Amino acid sequence: MDTGTRFAFTKIFVEDIQAEADFYAAAFGMKEKNRLTVGRGHDAVEEIILTSGRGDDSSLIVWRYVERPTPPAGESVLGFNVTDIAATVRAVEEAGGTVDTPIEEMPDIGFAVAFVKDPEGHLIEIAQNL
């Protein structure tokens, strides 16, 4: 069954966002695809999206909170692009997951996003292009 869902990215929290982006570029040939600052206040994050440059491949995103400490190393965020974010959030809940941050539409940058957790508490970002 094709749901239109695509594994799209992995995010890691970092302290020095530029140094980490430079490391992945030098060590693995990653290239900067985009740079964003999104969210507000305590939830604001800065991120650099890295890709191998092969086209429609998955991305590695290094990110940091703008106004709060970096979480300890070891946890990552899995990201999925979907065609129906509301239906996917419902499917997560029906499968035993929970909503961490409800759907937020960001028309100025062209996407909607929600954060959910799997049954063991691992963070997953769900994104839909608007």
Automatic annotation (TrEMBL):
<dbReference type="InterPro" id="IPR029068">
    <property type="entry name" value="Glyas_Bleomycin-R_OHBP_Dase"/>
</dbReference>
<dbReference type="Pfam" id="PF00903">
    <property type="entry name" value="Glyoxalase"/>
</dbReference>
<dbReference type="InterPro" id="IPR037523">
    <property type="entry name" value="VOC_core"/>
</dbReference>
<dbReference type="InterPro" id="IPR052164">
    <property type="entry name" value="Anthracycline_SecMetBiosynth"/>
</dbReference>
<dbReference type="InterPro" id="IPR004360">
    <property type="entry name" value="Glyas_Fos-R_dOase_dom"/>
</dbReference>
<feature type="domain" description="VOC">
    <location>
        <begin position="6"/>
        <end position="129"/>
    </location>
</feature>
<protein>
    <submittedName>
        <fullName>Glyoxalase/Bleomycin resistance protein/Dioxygenase superfamily protein</fullName>
    </submittedName>
</protein>
